[in-house]
Design goal:
This protein is an alpha/beta fold. The protein has one domain: Rossmann fold (3-Layer(aba) Sandwich), CATH 3.40.50. A six-stranded mixed β-sheet has the order 7-8-9-4-10-11, sandwiched between helices. Strand 10 and strand 11 form a beta hairpin.
Length: 315
């Protein structure tokens, strides 16, 4: 995870600058989406018949899952992102690489607006998911985080059974819709099969999720996202706490999910970026330096900064 430079999110100086015209300030305390467990997809329920300003886009209707335009972000007086312009293809795996403090995690957490939990954050510019503005006036963060799920560095299973972990987000987001036990069982099994975990846990679904291995816990956290059918899965160094076998298992899972989901992953592991992504974005000092296919970026980088980083001269 990026470590912000002082002053930054861990040690801001003073108060945030006044909101500028066209900027988006952080949600005030008590706003929707500020208290949900990380990776849960959001807390709170709503009538699914109500409009919330953020809707599912059918396949083939928009080629880019994530777009940013002149995206700038500040932690208090410290600017962490500078005019970030990106177009990330739908259904692909894209990796974000760069030295610590370059803005990778800040960018990742901006996509579903989790960064706004820090009350001294403000942004300007645009972020679009399948062409829809995530800062639209009628977009609720809870609904956005249903469409854009997140997996963190360390697995964060809830202190519940394996069954209840998988169904947690689904039960919240379905609102008042009644679902039978048989339907829930089908949803749960499908999610666990998608993450290649069903065979390992099918006989202990009522057991505590916290007793699983780290690899199994990380797979379970991914499974928790799938019943609400997110368009995008954000991954912030999801293998950093795993051993080589666990890392390989999660990377294999990413390829299984590719196509049905768009995956944006932050990694400090150059070998992982080469193995587990189709496109790679290199960032430095809050700016996007290069965005190309993974093979092209690693074999024939266009910028000296990129070449120096992937050759280990700094970082």
């Amino acid at each position: 995870m990026d470590k912000p430079v002082n002053p930054g999110p861990d040690n801001p100086e003073g108060t945030p600058p006044a909101r500028e015209p066209g900027s988006v300030a952080a949600n005030p305390p008590g706003s929707p989406g500020l208290s949900e467990p990380e990776g849960s997809g959001g807390l709170g329920s709503r009538d699914p018949g109500n409009s919330n300003g953020f809707s599912h886009v059918p396949p083939g209707r928009h080629p880019f899952a994530i777009e940013t335009e002149k995206l700038n972000l500040w932690y208090g007086d410290f600017q962490a992102l500078f005019d970030v312009d990106l177009k990330i293809k739908r259904g692909h795996i894209t990796s974000l690489i760069g030295p610590s403090g370059c803005g990778k995690t800040t960018l990742l957490r901006s996509v579903n607006r989790i960064v706004e939990r820090l009350g001294y954050v403000r942004t300007t510019g645009a972020i679009r998911i399948l062409g829809q503005d995530v800062y639209g006036p009628d977009v609720e963060p809870i609904q956005l985080r249903k469409e854009v799920g997140m997996v963190f560095q360390r697995p964060n299973p809830l202190p519940l059974s394996i069954r209840d972990n998988v169904l947690f987000s689904h039960r919240i987001h379905r609102g008042r819709v009644k679902v039978s036990g048989a339907e829930e069982a089908e949803i749960m099994e499908k999610a666990l099969r998608e993450v290649l975990l069903w065979d390992a846990v099918k006989d202990r679904l009522n057991g505590s999720a916290t007793t699983l291995s780290l690899e199994e816990q990380q797979k379970l956290c991914i499974a928790r996202l799938l019943p609400v059918k997110p368009e995008v899965i954000l991954m912030d160094e999801p293998c950093s706490a795993l051993d080589p076998a666990g890392t390989e298992a999660v990377e294999d899972l990413m390829w299984e999910l590719r196509g049905d989901y768009t995956i944006l992953i932050v990694t400090h592991n150059m070998a992982q970026a080469r193995r587990a992504s189709e496109e790679t974005i290199f960032m430095l000092l809050g700016k996007v330096i290069e965005h190309r296919t993974t093979e092209e970026l690693f074999l024939t980088p266009r910028h000296k900064e990129t070449a120096d980083y992937i050759e280990g001269r700094y970082g």
